[in-house]
Amino acid sequence: MSLPNRFSQRSCGHIVFGTLLGAALVAGLPAPGRAQEAQTVADATTRQPTPAEYGWGLDLYVDDVLAPMADYRTLIRPDFVGPAVGEQTRKWIESLQTAPVKGLELDPMGKLYVAVGKDSIAKRQFAERLGTKGLSASNKAYTLVVATRAFAHPDDAARIQTAVRYMAELDALPVDAMWKFLGRMALGQAYYVTGHGPEVVTQLSKAIALVTEIPFEERQDVFMNNPLPMLADVLSGMPGGRARIDSIGASMLPLAAASPEQIARDSGYFWTSRFYTYMAKSAVQLTAHLGQPAPAITANHWYNVSAPVTESKEAPGARTQTLADGKIRLLEYGEYNCHPCRMALPGMERIHKAYPTNVEVWYVTQTDGFWGTTEYSPDEEAQHLAHYYVDRKHYDFAIALWAGEKVKTQENGALPRDNPSATAFPIDATPTFVVVDGKGIVRHISIGYDAEVEKLLTSDVQYLVAEAKRQASAAPTSASPSISDVSSGR
After folding, report:
1. In the structure, what pLDDT confidence band is assigned to residue 399 with cuts at 50, 70 and 90?
2. Using CA atoms, how far apart are residues 224 and 283, in angstroms rounded to an integer?
3. Which residues does residue 447 pair with via DSSP β-bridges, in sequence order?
4. Mean pLDDT computed over 187-208
5. 124, 127, 128, 130: CA torsion to nearest 10
6. What average pLDDT does this structure show over 290-302?
7. Per-residue pLDDT, 464
8. Cis peptide before 431 (omega within 30 of 0)
9. How large is the C-alpha radius of gyration of the chain?
10. Are 438 and 326 in contact (CB under 8 A)?
11. pLDDT higher than threshold 50 for residue 19
12. How far apart are CA 402 and CA 416, in angstroms?
C-alpha cells in the first residue's frame, strides 16, 4: 500500500537510486548536446550495481509503478511498460552474470529471475542461500519471505503453490513472528487479487493471530499495512461477516496500545502507541463503511462533470453530490503530491472509457496549499491542478476538487482545511479506492496501488454491472450480495 510517511522515508533513496537506474536504462544514450547530463550518466555507471539494487529497481517499477525511461528524458508509454520492464530486467540479469553472485545477493537475484519467468533458476538461487552452512534462523526467514513474496503471483496458480510451500518452511522456523506475518500478508494479497475469498480469510486471519507474538516495538508494519481493510472487504459478503469484521477490529485496538509499564520506562512508547492507535482506529472506521451508504462527495470545483445542485454548508460555493442515484461509481481518493495516486489515474481513465454509459469514474482530490515551491490561494492552486489533470493529461473522468480555505497551524504555518469527502472515510493512506453500487452502498474498499489493482477494480465494476442487469430483468427478492460474494467463488 502507499502511505505518505513511508514514501517520505524513502524519498532520498528514490532520488539517489533513481539516478543510477536512469543511467542503467539509457546505457550510454544521453541527449546530444547535454554535456552535464552526459557526465551525470558517466558518473552513475562507474560502479556495477548489485542484485539488491536492481531488485529495488524492479520494485520501483512494479510495486511503486514507476515508469521506465526510453532515453534519459522520455518515459516509456504506459502500454509498453510491462514489456520494457521485462526486457530491462533481463539486461540486468545478464550484466550480473559477469561476476559470481553469492551470500545475501542470492535473494534479490532469485526475485529477478522470477520477474523474467525463470522460476527454476530462481528456486536454485533461494535453495543455495538457504543451504548456506551456519545460516541463522533469522537469515533463513528473510530468504523465505523474499521467496514467498516473489512467487505469490496472482496470475499464476502454480507460483502461488510454490509460495505456499515456502510459507510452510517459514512456519517451521523458530523465529520472530513478524517474519511469518509478512509471509501470510503476501499470500493473502495474492489470493485477494485472484478473487479467492476463502483463502484470503484463511491467510489474513492467521496473520492477525500472529500480532500478539510480535514485540510491540516491531508492530509498525502491522498498523501501517493493516490487513483489516482487505479482510473486511471479503468478509462483508459472507454470512455473519459484519460481526466478524467488528470483532477483529475491536481485537486489534488493544494491540496498538503500549502498556503503562512500557510508557513509564520510556516515553517513546507513548508516541508509538498513539500512532499505532490512530492507524488502527482509522482502519476500523474505514471498514465500517462496507455495506453502508457511501458518504456524499463535497467539493468547490468540478471538472468533466456538472456541479451538483445541492449546496453544502462546508464552505461558501461548495456543493454536494449524493451517490444513491442509480449509477455505479468507482472512486479514487488521492492527491497530487501522492505519486501512486497519479500513477493510478491512467488505469482509471481506461476503466472510464470501457464503461461510457452505466459506470462513472471519479477522482476525489484536494489542494495542498502550494504548487511547486510557491504558496497559492485555494482557487489559484485549483487552476494549476485543473490544467495538469484536464489540459495536460486529458483525463475525461469526473474530478471533484476540494479547495479548502487555509487555517493556521500550531507552528504558525497554514494548511488547507481538511477535505470533508476524505475525512468521512477517513483517508489516511492514499490512494484509496471505493466502489459504490447504484443504491449508493459501499461494496468495495481497497488501499494502495500497483499493477494488479486495476484488474481487481475492473472485476468489481464488471460484477456490479452484471448485478444491475439481473436486478433490472427480475423482481428483487433479497438484499444484494457484496462484491465479496464473487470473491468467494468467482
Report:
1. very high
2. 10
3. 432
4. 91
5. 160
6. 93
7. 86
8. yes
9. 24
10. yes
11. no
12. 9
